[in-house]
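Ligand-bound model needed. aspartic acid.
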Amino acid sequence: MKKILLIQTGGTIAMSAKGAGVELDPEAWASVLYKEIPELNEIAEISTLPLFFEDSSDLNASHWIELATCIEQNYTAYDGFVILHGTDTMAYSASALSFALKNLEKPVIFTGSQLPMSSIRSDARRNLVNAIEIATHPVHEVGICFNDALYRGNRSTKMSIGDFKAFGSPNFPSLAEFGIRINMKEQHHYGKGGFHNQAQFTNDVFVITAYPNLNPRFLDCLDLGMLRAVIIRAYGSGNFPIKGTFSLLPFLEKCQQAGVSVAIVSQAAFDSADLSQYPAGRAALEHGAISGGDMTLEAALTKMMFLLAHNESKSDIEELFQQSLAGELTG
Ligand code: ASP
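Prediction:
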């Protein structure tokens, strides 16, 4: 029987009803887990590890490092890893780990739920059973298992607050689907050589959303001396205002002079930014900006944080950012 390590980090799956809402409940989840789903032990030999207990909106890079270190320390002892995690930032954590865990040969599967485990209509049971089951299969990457599908972690994004189908993977097909049988899709391996943990991230990157009437003077308040990269969530193929007082080009010019990388991703979930398409994108290219292609914001941000931590040279960072490191980008 396969050995699976179930790592608890919090989220709704670990919460209980409290008044009109829900609250983290460290006692409840462990007892519910074994009382309500004893069949879990028929799928795998499961050990549990409560790593931290947070609403995922309170997580940051230090938690990603803790998670990656936990997997590294337990890597040889287990066949697969399931991480219980809040849905709000699950796609960020899964993306971050996909860059940190090099040459992964074992499944690292994130899951959670939209309703607490103890709620009668909860999706927790199904998600957890699916996640544990898929963690016994030969998946060699970080995935998000939710609502009868397994998605590549760094292609996933939270799409719904109220639907049980909380996640989508707009630019990459699911890795597996759960029906009467598990339908496994093509399997991927990233990297060559032995597994190692490279979890290191820096936060000298800032994300800007383009929107009508964004006052560029607000951007003048940014201390570019503290930044090494900016990610712009542009419209469509990579567009943003380039005319009159709302033009963002002077800001791009300042970034270029300050040696700050500018990467552009799209606010549109589907398809890829293409900076050669429209005048704004072409002007961005002339100002040294680079394209995030079809990366999710979650992948682009965590990748930039990872690359900044591992590289000094701006040109190396920009080159690597535009390459697929863990299947996050269609090349
Ligand atoms: N706020 C919760 C969290 O991300 C939401 C969830 O788990 O669904 O921790």
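The chain has a mean pLDDT of 95.
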